[in-house]
Fold this protein.
Amino acid sequence: MVLIKDIVEALTAFAPVSWQESYDNCGLQVGRPDRPASGALLTVDVNEEVVAEAIFRNVNLIVSHHPLIFKGLRHLCSATPTERAVELAIRHDIAICACHTNMDKAPHGVSYKMAEKLGLQDITTLLPEEQPTVGLGVMGTMPEACEPSAFAALLKKTFSVPTVRCTAPPETPVRRVALCGGAGGDAWRTAAELGCDAYVSADVKYHVFMDAAPSIWLIDIGHYESEQFTKEIFYAIITEKFPNFAVHFSEVNTNPINYL
């Protein structure tokens, strides 16, 4: 019998909660860890629709990249989407676990998965912390030099985006690339200092583009888009440890950004 805590322990063995940023809230957020787990639903975000999907699928664990409970809840009065999602989960005995910045920093974590999808080689950590392989972002090398227009097309195809926001493309081919899932725009300086031709992240502010323009090709592919493959990391961790355990990818599109 697989317990909720068994799944949580497998995830946090891969990405310890101690690696999370100080502002974050990773780990089990809702539910009792000693309850048997009937299955897991994997998602980037949790909302009422995702909880309803878990109920429909008859699974009692949701594994999310972004925490549902990010800031402290003062009450549960159905006043906000977060409160309603928490209430629905509790009412139906559904546990919720988040692996956010701890998974961002993990070896073979979020940014590594981005690099893997792009086919980068010789992947290393961009901002290592206590260990060389633990930290935010990665950098690697394209299998062969790529013209900027072709690299932009590769990004749009790989991450399923109709457009990207970026500084002016370089006049030379792209070979060395750095990436950081989520809001990692400020790390462009490190990428530039390490000789990267392009830096790919999300949630880049106007003045960050302004500062980076002379030094590196800075590209914003969208927050959700950069982290969408985190569900695949969850799937690999859980199914390797518990091969007969029911694991589902959520079919709810939680990306709040639309392109018109």
